[in-house]
Amino acid sequence: MKPYIFLPVLLLIPFTFQSYDNQIFKKNDIDSDEKLIAPIEISRKRADELFSKLPSTDPWIVRQDGSALAWGEAATLETLVDLYEATEDPSYLKEVARRGDRLLTHRDDRRGIADGSGKIRPAWSMGLKYVVAKEDLLDASGKVVASIRSTPYANNDLTKIELTPDSKPARFNLKISNSFWKRNESFSDLSFDPKDERFIEKIVNDPLSPYSTRAGEYTDTKSNLIRVKISDSTIPVAQSITLKSIPLAYTGYLGIIYNPMLRMAEFARSKPELADLLPAANRFIQAAEESYKDANARLWRNGPNQGEGYYLTCERGESFPADNVGQPINFLAMHTSTQLALFRLTGKKEYRDRSEKMSQLLKNRSKYDQEGDLYVWTYWYEPMTTVGWKPEDKLSSNVMFYKGAPNMEDSSHGVLDIAMIMAANREGLVFTKQDLMRFSNTLLKNVLLPDRTGIRRAVDGKGGDHAAYFPILHGWLELAAANPEVYHEIRKTYLNRGEENLAFTAELLRWERKMKTIPSASK
């Protein structure tokens, strides 16, 4: 049913607020007096007002990248379905149908666009921040003499390379920079001769280049920005280039994008008064099945342990920086929510079976904290969280070395995991009522600040307020189905914080209605 989705485009610019006696104050920029303004309103009227302020432009026009649809437009669709659940007004679902059809027109195969593999996939390509970038070095005739690929996990399209002749014959210099990483590298006296001690691949390439990189000025230190491979010994001409992102039809976005569309489809299939939405519902179901047919054939793997399963980020050599490894748990979470909807809509057991295996993967990695009666868990799983890998393992083409570390799941992506947990529990899979209470304790004891004014960064409860993640706190409301205290404490935190948010408003309205049907929900 309802998972969490990021909704950055729906967050209104926050002011500096203080709360007092359930009222909200705003600091006056003109004088030192504090003037009382209206408290945050949680109502359908206010939600509609906030929705009317959203840009009417198709986000794809503004930013032609799958991420704009996954973290933007799909989030808008989730909010529209929330408002339908809060009001039963079909106009919200009709808007989902309109926007959903528009969203599908941007899928790679609908546009006839191939990603970096040269294949046309039934998915949406990302080609900006989180992919490998590349470019070629040319000789005087314009022939490619070397290819360059990035090594960090992100922002590789900001890597710039300047090649200049050295004072010595058949020698040249390289300057490499990336403004995001604030890193500058310089190499001199380089050669294209494999027998030369200053051979470019030997001097520049680092077989242990890390997944991330550090800021600073580096001279003749192996690069942590690029990897070079020569194809011809001809000396390149002087040139300045910027690496170009390699687009990838990223299947990690499938669950995120299709989930709200399938939520609408389930309502259309179950309520006679929504019969006019059935054609759109059937289009959405068919589209989701097309996408998963491709993803399942290429990227589904059983494991790491018996009874578990996951999707690869991409095939080996494609442009997700950590190619040929499992997608993070939170992406598996949204595949689970979406494929359980497909199971209910189509009756195909394969969707339920994969969902059970992905859910089991998270359950088996949820560490029980007996003192707090709660769970903590990591962002990824093995080998990312354990031994990592080395060049000789030949696991990833893009990241040849990875030092494994059990990095905690953050409270932002964590709500995607909560969506999986609740969706699986509703189907009677993997997660028990006891598990749900423990995950709700993770929220109440680790994620929410004790004074209920904000949230911490990670599910282990370390650190103070992490303001950037507050707008997504509403995603944890799903746990209110098991523990009504979740609803009351999140609502309190939202009002105390005083940062108005359309997605938050819609979710609170939805849960305000749902709480009336939950035993012991009054407080």
TrEMBL record:
GO BP annotation list: carbohydrate metabolic process
SUPFAM superfamilies: Six-hairpin glycosidases
Protein name (Swiss-Prot/TrEMBL): Uncharacterized protein
Organism encoding this protein: Daejeonella rubra
